[in-house]
């Protein structure tokens, strides 16, 4: 019996949801989750597998240095060094979702400012962008882990995609979806030839107060 079958089930459900929304594509995007029984181990998406058909036995168990902890014909995703750098740097984080969402990626490419246009946008807050580096290099891991220091849980990589981390997979996937929706709304305004009207400062402050009261 696979000791991680329950967390793998959630992993695949989250993957299916992200896939259905077009946030993860057949070969773009990947997921990692810290093993519930050992903070130094993680489950991660394999490389080169068509994501729609991913099965529990293809999800790989590795340590936080990237060493495979079981025999498998598959290799961890090439973006594993970024996932592991985040999990090493943020003990409070248990899940990392990396996607290539069309609208958020367009933000990273164009440098459009992320604006407080809705309460979702205020909840997201800031959406920092780091420059493109070779995918999965140790350097890319360090840059992204630095951008995700403190309480910042998401970052865009210019000309690439989005990394979101969180306390669990539903949280990281939920914020991925929220960020993509806000980016889409801003891009649609631009496509309509108008600048999106942002919420005034006092309404942003009100929403921030409401968020705080719901988080404590
Ligand atoms: Zn990627």
What does the secondary structure layout of this molecule look like, with pairings?
Blueprint: H1 5-20, E1 30-35, E2 38-44, E3 60-63, H2 80-89, E4 95-99, H3 102-110, H4 119-124, E5 129-130, H5 138-147, E6 154-157, E7 161-166, H6 169-191, H7 201-215
Parallel strand pairs: 5-6
Antiparallel strand pairs: 1-2, 1-4, 2-3, 4-7, 6-7
The structure holds zinc ion.
Give your account of this protein's structure.
- The chain has 216 residues and is of the alpha+beta class.
- It has one domain (5-215): L-fuculose-1-phosphate Aldolase.
- The chain is 41% helix and 16% strand.
- It is built from seven helices and seven strands, in the order αβββαβααβαββαα.
- α2 (80-89) crosses α5 (138-147) and α3 (102-110) packs across α6 (169-191).
- Bound molecules: zinc ion (ZN).
- Zinc ion binds at residues 28, 79, 98, 100, 160-161.
- The site of zinc ion has 6 residues, from loops.
